[in-house]
Amino acid sequence: xxxxxxxxxxxxxxxxxxxxxxxxxxxxxxxxxxxxxxxxxxxxxxxxxxxxxxxxxxxxxxxxxxxxxxxxxxxxxxxxxxxxxxxxxxxxxxxxxxxxxxxxxxxxxxxxxxxxxxxxxxxxxxxxxxxxxxxxxxxxxxxxxxxxxxxxxxxxxxxxxxxxxxxxxxxxxxxxxxxxxxxxxxxxxxxxxxxxxxxxxxxxxxxxxxxxxxxxxxxxxxxxxxxxxxxxxxxxxxxxxxxxxxxxxxxxxxxxxxxxxxxxxxxxxxxxxxxxxxxxxxxxxxxxxxxxxxxxxxxxx
Length: 301
Description:
The protein is α/β, with parallel strands linked by helices and 301 residues long. It has helices at 13-23, 52-59, 75-79, 150-164, 181-189, 201-213, 244-253, 271-282, and strands at residues 2-9, 29-32, 37-44, 63-70, 86-89, 92-94, 116-120, 133-137, 172-175, 194-198, 218-222, 237-241, 261-267, 286-292, 295-300. It has a seven-stranded mixed beta sheet with strand order 11-10-9-12-13-15-14.
């Protein structure tokens, strides 16, 4: 088995990741390095891996190094070690890192809102304490988004924050759904109906399969923000875990103001620009901001 690794500059890493997922939609291993770089790796037999010219094109100016190495045939078992369960609660989550500087307005609560979301891959054991905890099972091998990345965790937390504030009773659109984890979570905390959109065929299929496994009533459709316009957004909450350029495009293309907006996929230094764009275009005001390491997420209304 071959491990094909590409090392890139951290400041441009998320843009490179989006391009890599086009070449390897089944998943990319991510390793944060201490030297200001990020390493992405894919595994496969010779002839199954992306070719080098495509990798160089995907990395662009961010490229530092491309390397290959042989790995043991049990890599699939060891790969599972990278996907661990997470527990997310309103106002903070358990585990490594995680921002806790959130102060959502509103104190309404509902008895059917879960106290926590427990997201796990299918090979991990169910939550030991099921009381008040809603479990979501996500297969990480089919599409991006298992809950482990900081941007996804912050979106999960903000969904719980909206539910706790009594704002999770209407329709929601999850733009760029990936594995469907956020759309499934939105349905669990009380949003309905939930529409999950993604331009990747593999992601649409994975989200539908994950929804079926979790018995979540969500609709999953293929949608490309670059060429299509969202309709009837004004009656819905909108969740967009996207890169900054796509969020800026979104702010310019929406004709109706959503009831609530959760925006993530942002570096800390990009959060002000995103908030200003949605404020200028749609009159949305920032309710709170989360930070986790170098990442940020916004709740706007």
